[in-house]
Structure formats: C-alpha cells, structure tokens
Amino acid sequence: MITRIFEERLSKIGKNLKSSLIRDLLKYAQVPGAISFGGGAPDPETFPSKELGEIAKEILENEYSFTLQYIPTEGDEELKEEFLKLLDRIYGITDVTKENLLMTTGSQQALDILARIFLDEDSYVIVESPSYLGALNAFYTSFPKFITVPLEEDGMDINYLEKVLKELDERGEIEKVKFIYTVPTFQNPAGVTMSLEKRKALVELAEKYDILIVEDDPYGALYFDEIPPDSIYRLAGKERVILLNTFSKILTPGLRIGVIIADKTIITKAIRAKQSADLCSSGLTQRLAARFLKNYDLFDYLKNIRAVYKEKRDIMIEAMEEYLKPYGARWTKPGGGLFIWIKLPEEYDTMEMLDIAKEKLVFYIPGKAFMVDVENSSAARLSFCLPPKEIIPEGIRRLGEVIVEYRRKKGL
Ligand SMILES: Cc1ncc(COP(=O)(O)O)c(C=O)c1O
C-alpha cells in the first residue's frame, strides 16, 4: 500500500530509473569462487596507498581548516595548478587556465551536469554504439532523443555520422543536436581507438554543422603499446570541444575526482548546476591528489599501471585464443585501457547466456547494456583490470564452458 503511494508520487525521472545491470552483476560477482570480468574497477594493487596515507595524515593534521571545510565549488586551486601541468604533459594542451576547469565528483558527475545544462526532451544527443553505459544513464535523465552511430575498429563510422547530420540539417533540426558524445581512446566498452583521420573528420563535420563535441577520456594515459593520437580537444580547442577527465583510472576512483575542461561560459553554467547538486566536491581528496602530483611523478607511477594491465590484457587474449576462438568468437585487441569487446556468432544472445554464466561463476557485461536501440546482442564486454592475473585463464575457460552449455541448450 505504502509502496504504491510512493510509486504514484514519483517524478518522470523517478519512474524511469532502472536498476543498473552492472551493479546487479557486481552483487553476484561477490559470491565466493566467482570470477568477474564485469566491472571496470581498477586493480587495487596499483593504488599508491602508502604515499596517499602519509599525505592524508599531513593534510588532515596541518591543513584541516581547508581539508575538513567546505571548499569553493570550482575546486581546490592547488589541484587545478597541478592539473594544468598534467594537461600539458598528457595531451600537450596549453591553452587553458584555471577558469577553464571545474573539478567534479568523478567524471560521472560531469556527465550528469552536461545533461542538466544542455539536454531537453526535444534535444538530440549523438552517441557511439556501443557507448559508455554511465553516460547513457546520465543523459536519459533529461529524456533526449538518442542518435546512435556505429562504432568501427578505428572509431565511430564518420560516413554514417555525416549522413545523419545532413538529414537533420535538411529537416531543419540540426540546432536540436546538443552534442556528439565520444570516448575516442580505448573506448569503454569496446576498447577501440579513433584514428587521427577520423578525429579530424569528426572535427570538420562538427564545425560544418556547428555542433559541440564531448570528449570523455578516462583511459588515454593508460596506453600499452603506442601513444594514442592527438586528443580531439587538442585538434579543435575549447570553442568546439568539452573534454572530460578523471583521476579514477590513473590514480584511484575512491578519490572521486573528475574534471571538466571547457570554455569559460560552459564552466560558469556547470558550476551553478554543481552547486545545486553537492555544493562542492571533497576538499580532502582534492588536496590529497594535488599533493600527490606535487610530491611524486605520476608518470613513473603510470609506467607500473600500464605494465600491470598490459600483462593482464595479454594473458586474457591468450586464453581467449585457446578457449573461445574454437566457437567463432572474435574480439578487439585494445592498445590500452581496461576493456575487450568480444563478439560471438549472431545466433548467440549474451544476455540470455548470463543465467548459465551465473551457474558457472563467471561474469561479463552483455553487449545490450551499452546500446540504446537493440533487442539482443551477441557481444559482451570483458574487463581484465580487476581479477588477479593468475585466475584470468580459468575465468575464460569457464566462459568457454558457458558457450558450450548455451549451444547445447539452444541446439546451435
Ligand atoms: C568513459 C567513462 N566515462 C566516465 C566514467 C566515470 O568515471 P568516474 O566517475 O569514476 O570519474 C567512466 C568509468 O568507468 C568511464 O569509463
């Protein structure tokens, strides 16, 4: 009875909130003996916990009037200074000042803020298919119309995008396109990277039709082989691009620090939206990150993280060759980041297959979770970041068993 009343009073957003498949899966993945390739949580062994512990003690004891206080919504000045240096080192971006930065509570909050300041019900938002689930969820809350652009081995299908933009322009609707959202480097979930040619073509189209690009880049610094191509922001600047960055994958997600890098007018609006959400992000964790950047060389530390994930990627791919290739599976070989996108033959449905995966105690995220407009998908995301390297082959072997059992049940 009470539940019914509550449900009746929910807002449109409240009624539409669905449970996150990833969160649900993480629950199953806690079962003893389970091996999870589901979440994108970094390997805790890569966290510099000792160094952060020492800094935490110092800033809590000596700087408590800042670290335990509310801080300005924009973020910690000291972190901003350090982050500007990092922007130059990671991307070669030098055309920004502190006024172009807003520190957020993870880049997930940045996505939520962008939805709130740009999207209405009659807006269009262009996303890759597949796309980062957290971004889709953040955008959903404003009920925009999604336009999906297929993702290829070298980034989004630019010809398709051009066709879509041309049609919208002819229909007089191009101004309703609020932005193109892309994760161009070591994409989540597909692990692919947009080529330099496609980045340039994307910028050209965005300029032709006067559309903003949101470049979400948590993984660019986590390359294993070659350094990725220039960021889209570096190619087109802040008049065209909003760049999102985060400390989650290069330091630790527990700090919950993301950054919006954008034109001042956008930052001003974003600050107002953030104020109504949480007043400010934690001064304690921002100062912690700032002091870490000041006292240590993040790049030295990144060398170790890259080596850890590169080894895990190689172990996973080797196991996939042995246990999954015989069933017609194909996959991407990411040059960095945390994810491999695997495709089984068309007749497989990875969502349906999950029931068997639960029995066999192995977890992945079905491809459907990352797509707004498909009924079923034979693809899945496997992340190699969290499980210890020794158990990755066993997890992939179990996945092979899941496939065998599914084939038997479906008579494939
Ligand atoms: C593409 C992308 N954007 C944003 C996020 C959110 O990261 P956080 O809120 O931890 O900064 C993630 C996390 O996995 C991601 O993969």
Helix-strand blueprint:
Blueprint: H1 2-9, H2 12-16, H3 21-29, E1 35-36, H4 49-62, H5 64-67, H6 77-91, E2 101-104, H7 106-118, E3 124-129, H8 133-140, E4 145-152, E5 155-156, H9 158-170, E6 177-182, H10 196-209, E7 212-216, H11 232-236, E8 241-246, E9 258-261, H12 264-278, H13 283-295, H14 298-323, E10 330-331, E11 339-343, H15 350-360, E12 362-363, E13 365-366, E14 379-383, H16 392-410
Parallel strand pairs: 1-12, 3-4, 3-6, 6-7, 7-8
Antiparallel strand pairs: 2-9, 4-5, 8-9, 10-11, 11-14, 13-14
The structure holds pyridoxal-5'-phosphate.
Pyridoxal-5'-phosphate binds near residues 106, 107 and 253.
Which characteristics define this entry?
about 400 residues; alpha/beta; Aspartate Aminotransferase, domain 1; Aspartate Aminotransferase, domain 2; 8-stranded mixed sheet; 4-stranded antiparallel sheet; about 45% helix
Structural class: alpha/beta
Give the SSE order as H and E letters: HHHEHHHEHEHEEHEHEHEEHHHEEHEEEH
Oligomer: single chain
The whole-angstrom Rg is 22 Å
Ligand inventory? pyridoxal-5'-phosphate
Main pleated-sheet profile: 8 strands, mixed
- Give the beta-strand count: 14
Q: Considering DSSP H and I runs of 4 or more, what fraction of the residues is helical?
A: 40-55%
Number of separate domains: 2
How far the N terminus sits from the C terminus, by CA atoms, comes to 46 Å
Which architecture name of the largest domain does CATH use? 3-Layer(aba) Sandwich
The pLDDT mean sits at: 95
CATH topology of the largest domain: the name is Aspartate Aminotransferase, domain 2
What is the number of helical segments per DSSP (H or I, 4+ residues)?
16
Strand content range: 5-15%
Which segments are poorly predicted (pLDDT under 50) over 5 or more consecutive residues?
A: none
Reading off the top of the CATH hierarchy, the class of the largest domain is best stated as: Alpha Beta
CATH superfamily of the largest domain: Type I PLP-dependent aspartate aminotransferase-like (Major domain)
Shape: globular
State the strand order across the main sheet. Answer: 2-9-8-7-6-3-4-5
